[in-house]
Design brief:
This protein is α+β, with helices and mostly antiparallel strands. It has a seven-stranded antiparallel β-sheet with strand order 1-7-4-5-6-3-2. Helix 3 runs parallel beside helix 6 and helix 4 crosses helix 6. The longest helix has 15 residues.
Length: 160
């Protein structure tokens, strides 16, 4: 696990920190890759987190989500102490039964879903999984099917 300190910055509404090159090199070596999202785990001011490193606008960033920020008791502009390493644990999300059922019933939507990149599939699955009520799940499963058929927008996207 690598240790470093960084100032919390913000891009748009998203707090993040830049990682030192030596820390990135260590994570790339552990992950055996230096492209695409990279799963990491660590501690922020002593509080555990799991997160994903992403490259945006040419720079690798560790986004500091609301629970991480709250746990650290820090704000934008503060310096935090981080421990970080590659997280080899595969992160999977089971498909909500109502989404699975709708895809089973609609072969055309299922075929489109199967051709999506893994990241887009996860995006749809996670979105449905995190809805709070049965009504919102049903409504959004319906919209997701329409999206897959090219008839509606879903999760801010025009078409699959």
């Amino acid at each position: 696990m690598k240790t470093f300190t960084a100032k919390i910055d913000i891009i748009g509404i998203n707090p993040f920190v830049f990682l030192p090159d030596t820390v990135l090199a260590s994570i790339f070596k552990q992950a055996k890759k230096d492209k695409g999202p990279i799963q990491v785990r660590g501690k922020i001011d002593g509080h555990s987190f799991i997160q994903t490193l992403v490259k945006y606008s040419g720079a690798w960033r560790l986004y500091i989500n609301a629970p991480m920020l709250k746990a650290s008791n820090k704000k934008i502009g503060d310096v935090i102490k981080l421990y970080i390493e590659f997280d080899p644990v595969e992160r999977t999300h089971d498909m909500h039964p109502k989404l699975a059922s709708a895809l089973k019933k609609n072969k055309e939507a299922f075929a489109v879903f199967e051709k999506l990149p893994p990241s887009r599939k996860r995006e749809i699955i996670r979105y449905i999984n995190f809805l709070k009520t049965d009504a919102s799940v049903e409504r959004n499963v319906s919209i997701a099917i329409e999206f897959l058929l090219g008839k509606a927008r879903f999760v801010g996207r025009d078409k699959p």
